[in-house]
Amino acid sequence: MPAHSIPLSYQKPPPRAALSHIPGEDGWPLVGSTFETLADPKGFIESLAAKHGLVTRSHVLGETGVHLLGPAANELVLLDQEKKFSSTFGWARFMDRVFPRGLMMLDFDEHRQHRRALSVAFKAGPMQAYLQALNTGIAARVAQWRAVPGQMLFYPAMKQLTLDLAAVSFLGTGIGPESEGLTRAFVDMVAATLAPVRRPLPGTQMRRGVRGRAHIVEFFSRQVPLRREAGGDDLFSQLCRATTEDGALLSPAAVVDHISFFMMAAHDTLTSSLSAFVMMLAANPAWQTKLRDEIVALGLRPGEALAFDRLEEMKLTEMAFKETLRMIPPVPLIPRRCLREFTFMGFTIPAGTSVGVNPLFTHYMPDLWPEPSRFDPSRFAEAAQAGRHRYAFVPYGGGAHMCLGLHFAYMQAKCFALHFLQNLRVTLPAGGPNAWRMWPIPKPKDGLPVILAPA
Ligand code: HEM
Q: How far is 347 from 357, CA to CA, in rounded Å?
């Protein structure tokens, strides 16, 4: 059922009283448990689960919703075999004004058609072209860091690098002087997804986000016909040429929505996960050495690019990156809205309820992950994974909406690890590692100071 034909009643939350049979917390008058959730989402959800179990209720950001916790809940909601859970109406309250028709914001048949068309951008040919851009950009930045060893704030540096890499691998090199204005517009759109004032009133972040979107739409719309003509290996050019099953090109408006959403989906997740990766390697020097040895064993000359067909040789690097995603998942909570009543673990949940599955909670369940706070990439060795629930590790979600860029993410992580560890040794200043703010996308509270030295 396409989202636009869903009866309006399904999009509305049920009255609060309709969820009173679900165990949970009302929190403070009006604000509910918003502050507790924002301050410590992991601690809050773990305390709810300890008191009430794996189906529990809380009132956050103006709405009472239900948390469905653990791998069986992840499977039910993400796999969604009965098409009961809408991603459109789950994400709408964050995305609707700034990324209204990104892929993740489409449901069911319409989503399937667009996803099929967009998948062309992640085939081996285009991926090789992106990898070339990543190799060049990362090698140059690591060389700059190596030239000035010592203490640096890593998170902002990583954010800048991710933006710069996206500008080339996503948009190609033809952006020129417009690039600064586009970056600003894009940053405003992302910030608006979580702006506390949800209407674009003068002076608000939402207003800046909506203006940013207008700027991006105007610029990208002009580019679509040019890119269709010119070809080009970048991701935007791939999307411009993407076709649906019947061979038709996507409309320019759809291409613009998709490319801006892709940039959003990739940017903060990669910044967060690669920063966390570096922190984990700094805090676990034995693993840092193992990964460096794996990289040395590839036998590349200094500065030589990592080839696409050698990515799979970096098995330990992939395991360590996965362990990082387990401990600090860039999308800690995945929202949906149920379109029809359903029953889970004996609880009946009415149509319209906002439901959340929780990678962060699942990734610390001790029966799935013994000693969950210990960084141990060997959990992802092939033998160790046998018999683990398929939905125990869900940093990329699952089912129809499973992250379309996950291979891109592994590729960027490996390319980054290669250049970084070939050239640099990383440690944490005394007192580290420091705390992360886990919501909405994890970020180190102190910007992540690290000490870099030549390897
Ligand atoms: C470590 C990095 C990343 C993580 C942890 C991550 C996580 C996720 C998650 C959890 C979802 C599913 C959300 C849901 O089901 O509601 C998702 C969807 C998506 N991601 Fe990623 N992502 C990452 C990197 C990327 C990159 C690099 C790209 C693009 C190049 C990308 C593009 C997308 C797209 C297009 C979707 C929507 C898929 C759909 O609805 O069919 N992501 N991602």
A: 16
Judging by DSSP bridges, how do beta strands 63-68 and 354-357 pair with one another?
Answer: parallel
Does ligand 1 come within 6 angstroms of the Cβ of 403? yes
Q: Long-range contact list for 238-245, CB < 8 A, 24+ apart?
A: 238/120, 238/121, 238/126, 239/118, 239/121, 241/120, 242/117, 242/118, 242/120, 242/121, 243/117, 244/113, 244/114, 244/116, 244/117, 245/113, 245/116
Q: Is 270 in the pocket of ligand 1 (CB under 6 A)?
A: yes
C-alpha span between 38 and 51 (Å, rounded):
19
DSSP H/E element including 23: none
Instruction: Order across the sheet with 334-338: list the strands.
Output: 55-60, 63-68, 354-357, 334-338, 85-86
Q: What whole-number distance in Å separates Cα of residue 156 and Cα of residue 134? A: 18
Instruction: State how far the Cα of 66 lies from the Cα of 341, in Å rounded to an integer.
Output: 13
Q: In this prediction, what percent of the chain has a pLDDT beyond 70?
A: 97
Residue 78 phi/psi, 5° resolution? -80, -40
Number of C-alpha atoms within 13 angstroms, CB side, residue 278?
30
Q: What is the DSSP string of 83-126?
A: --EEHHHHHHHHHTTTSTTSGGG--HHHHHHHHHHHGGGGSHHH
| Greatest distance between any 2 Cα atoms in the chain | 66
Ligand 1 pocket check for 118: Cβ under 6 Å: no
> Comparing C-alpha atoms, which of 116, 109, 88, 130 is closest to residue 337?
88
Cα atoms in the 13 Å half-sphere on the side-chain side of 380 = 19
Nearest CA to ligand 1 atom 19: 403
CA dihedral 353, 359, 364, 369 (to 10 degrees): 120
With b meaning 16 or more CB within 10 Å and e meaning fewer, what string describes 198-221?
bebeeebbbbbbbebbebbbeebe
CB distance 233 to 126 below 8 Å: yes
**pLDDT for 381-399, tens place per residue?**
999 999 999 999 999 999 9
Kindly tell me the burial class for residue 14, based on how many C-beta atoms sit within 10 Å of its own C-beta (0-12, 13-18, 19 or more).
Answer: middle
- Rounded mean pLDDT of 216-221? 94
What would you report as the CA-atom Rg of the chain, rounded to the nearest whole angstrom? 22
Average pLDDT across the chain, whole number: 93
Q: Are 206 and 195 in contact (CB under 8 A)?
A: yes
Token pair recorded at residue 93: 């309250």
Ligand 1 mean position, distance from CA 103 (Å): 10
